[in-house]
Amino acid sequence: MGPYQESRARDEVTAGRAVLGIELGSTRIKAVLVARDGSTLAAGGHDWENQLVDGRWTYSLDAVWAGLQGCVAALRADVERRYGVPLTDLGALGVSAMMHGYLAFDAAGDLLVPFRTWRNTSTGPAAAELTELLGHNIPLRWSVAHLYQAVLDDEPHVDDVALITTLAGYVHQRLTGETVLGVGDASGMFPIDPATRDYDARMLAAADALLAERRPGLRLGAVLPRVLVAGQEAGRLTAEGAALLDPTGGLRPGAPLCPPEGDAGTGMVATNAVAPRTGNVSVGTSVFAMVVLERPLAQVHHELDVVTTPAGDLVAMVHCNNGASELGAWAEVFGRFAEVLGASADPDAVFGALLREALEGEPDAGGVVAYNYLAGEPITGLTEGRPLILRTPDSRLTLANVVRAQVYGVFGTLSLGMRVLTAEGVELDGLSAHGGLFRTAGVAQRLLAAAVGAPVSVARTASEGGAWGMAVLAAYLEVAGERDLRSYLDDVLFADAEVDVVDPDPTDVAGYAVFLERYTAGLAAERAAAESVRGAGAAGGGL
């Protein structure tokens, strides 16, 4: 940033026009401050991890606020370092987070059971019954599946439920006092009618009738948050909310907030993939593809969620519970090996070196197959995961092949879901990608293009990810009365965007097809490992 740009950025901050986007991801909470043209002014982050407590994946609410405060403190310090002025007033603000899951509160606002995240896969009976009843795929991680499973299990807290919401909805409510959700996030709680941009009334009535058989006093319409679409103001930052984000008192209340959204919707915004025939792939702890539909799907598929964009348009989502975490774990192993040898082991440098080595691997990864299943994977029918590397005696075991297999493994389950979309006749002009995996230029992007058989683009904002996308949705509040979200992204935010596009390499495509054939056949071994090998913390350990 040159002197003039730095001066202009300082003016944006001091005038209180800068816009803040915050996203609570699976392993990192990130805040990005942007100018009205989308330029990133400052950023802050805070690392955190989910916990397995009593067999359920969760985050404590104390960890939520400690993480948000740490993230905002880092952002404010970055502003002071860059521009020499404090961040006190915001032009607008938005919060996004991991979609789905289950946060249940009573009428006093007290949490009834620990937060159950999207990663929990214990809702099989509820999801299956709801899917059959509604004629709409209800995945295991959806909020309504968690609620109905609690009803089926006769959990005592169900009688006291006054509100269920998502993580983004919870944070937004504490910041503003408003119990609302953006339509994209809401579409991961309960199906949305694209005509009304609200919960589907017919399905809501059917679900309420089902609930009434077991819990006559429980009505979904009474416990779900109100739905808003992109561009609608969703409240203002209260004094209590400002103090929650910044206990030092430096951040002032009053900024308008856009509707809270899920990480899927912010990923679509961050990659300008909100128009029909466009799609995006987000890679983090989970990996998912979002494809904007030209028409509703003809059939119900367990591999596909039907959700919406932040504007309420229908989207087919291929969601895989397992993403790049296992690849990251291997990077840590190799980083430690470098340290043992006395070499420098900067984590980003290690990760980048390994990804570049993957390009030296054989197109089919030399017969090496890797499964990244740290958790269960509904698309392939696994309720538990066991990370696994498989090879035959004649496989070529090289570093390049192992790393290529690990990267291919990140996209393996995604490919299986995308096949279902292709069979439905859904056509794509291309996919945009974002997430930290794409910071190393040209590697994951090229291998993803091979996995999906379509061009993959990565924009300069890809590494900022959903927090930047959330800031964009907050900035959109100012012009929503003049243009729709699609034209705002096309004509304002991405008009001069630098985008790198990689077309599928035929050799990579052919090699990946061989890998995926082995991957699919080897799922039997993965399933057997999940059934027979217990975790190291299990009684007795080992087998």
TrEMBL record:
GO MF: kinase activity
Pfam families xref list: FGGY_C, FGGY_N
Keyword Chaperone: no
Domain Carbohydrate kinase FGGY N-terminal: 19-245
Entry-linked SUPFAM superfamilies: Actin-like ATPase domain
CDD domains reported for this sequence: ASKHA_NBD_FGGY_BaXK-like (cd07809)
InterPro entries: ATPase_NBD, FGGY_C, FGGY_Carb_Kinase, FGGY_N
Gene Ontology biological-process annotations: D-xylose metabolic process
PANTHER family xref list: SUGAR KINASE, XYLULOSE KINASE
Assigned protein family: Belongs to the FGGY kinase family.
Protein's name in the database: ATPase
Organismal lineage: Bacteria, Bacillati, Actinomycetota, Actinomycetes, Micrococcales
